[in-house]
Specification:
Subcellular location: Endoplasmic reticulum membrane; Mitochondrion outer membrane
Subunit structure: Homotrimer; The trimer binds only one molecule of glutathione.
Distance between the termini: 31 Å
Order of helices and strands: HHHHHH
Structural class: mainly alpha
Oligomer: single chain
Strand content: under 5%
EC number: 2.5.1.18
Enzyme class: transferase
Number of strands: 0
Function: Conjugation of reduced glutathione to a wide number of exogenous and endogenous hydrophobic electrophiles.
CATH class of one domain: Mainly Alpha
Length: about 150
Amino acid sequence: MAQTIVETLLENPLFRTYSFYCSVLVLKMMSMSVLTGLTRVKNKAFANPEDAKNFNVKVKVNEDVERVRRAHLNDLENIPLFFLISFIYVLTNPSVFLATNLFRAYTIARIVHTIVYAVVVIPQPARGFSFGVGLFITGYMAVQNVLYFLL
């Protein structure tokens, strides 16, 4: 009996690795919403009047909150591209060792990006370097996909 596509994917060790790192990145992105909320409460800096009213404060902008928000927005701009490009990359049957390390490095780079941007606030070039690592990895996989499917 023919296996379904899903069964075939689930048996593929690289797809399982891809699924693991994508899940870690989803949890990381979800944590950014919690971090934003906690930072708002800590600094009593709310964007909506109804939220500010609950804490007897006025609507205000706070740089700590904005840093967390910008880090989250950067995730929202970059991680979905990684999800798509890395899924296509898995379909090209790359080296398991290389692909696993690309997924791992990307995930670590995104976590480091958040830490140096929104948690510990380490000055440049730390944030730029961690962003660049992720950008390079996504670009590398995209080029490999183009080359694979070009022919």
